[in-house]
Amino acid sequence: MEQEKIIDLEQQKIIFAHLTKIMKNKIEILENQRNVVSYALAAKIASESSTKTSRNRIKLKTIYCITAFAIIACGSVIAINLKSDDAEPFKTRYMVENLRGDTVDTWKFWKIDAESTLVVNIMNSGMVGEHKIKSIKDAILSTDTLSMDDSITHKGLGTSSTYFVGWKGALEESSAMKTKYVIPTKFKIIESESEVGNIVIKLSALKDQDGYSGFTKSTVDGNEILKSQIVIYDAGSLSDDGLEAIVRHEFGHALGLGHSTAPEDLMAPTISMQVPYISECDIGAVSQLYDGVTMDKTVCTK
Ligand SMILES: [Zn+2]
What we know:
- 32% of the residues lie in helices and 22% in strands.
- The protein is of the alpha/beta class.
- The strands form 3 sheets. Strands 1-2-8-9-7-3-6 form a 7-stranded mixed beta sheet, covered by helices on one side.
- Strand 10, helix 5 and strand 11 form a beta-alpha-beta unit.
- Helix 2 (130-141) packs parallel to helix 4 and helix 3 (167-174) packs across helix 5.
- Residues 60, 76, 78, 249, 253, 259 line the site of zinc ion (ZN).
């Protein structure tokens, strides 16, 4: 009899522990939901106030980070409405925060060995023509360089700067400096309908309801990027140059870069379509990032 009571008590203990665990999980879910709502409200208010004070058509919306146990997912949103008569630069916003309102370090990068190839998957490639696929590939694989007069970017008179068309060329240049971690320089582009690959570029026929054209989300564990996902909205209606510039910018995020403080830079929160190429500043930022220099912004000296 006494033994039965003990067994019964033990079972009740187990059930109680189980219920406590369930309740804890529910509380955590509710807390997360509350944080999602308050974060979304804050972002909406901020976005509305910036819209009122600006006529800009390119808008960087936000970087958001979701802390789920040990995994942090960080993403950025960029919206570009490209029209040929848009000569003025477009102001955008950049924000790093997790759902609990803490600041999240944007220091994140791929931890790979020298022989590794990152697989880049272009999903729904069939929805755009071959020339648009070429634009996407150029933004990633090209090693071409351009020389631009610095007066265009107000960096000087009578001098010029070199820009890279594709990240491969830029990253190889970055790799010229010895870094603590291996800078990715090898990419294999595939076109698959499933979300395979290290970096997925999803071409969407849908228009983002807030008018954004691009979105990058990197899933990280600690400071190691596990996967980066880029979505290009309404991809079929973008110009080739526009698509290429968006992919170039988003791919920078996919590699771990944040935003540049130089207003004319490709990775600037304010993007000018005058020189939407990879600058010496971006190349330096990659070298610093993969050398373990903790930072959340790239400071350009030129
Ligand atoms: Zn961005």
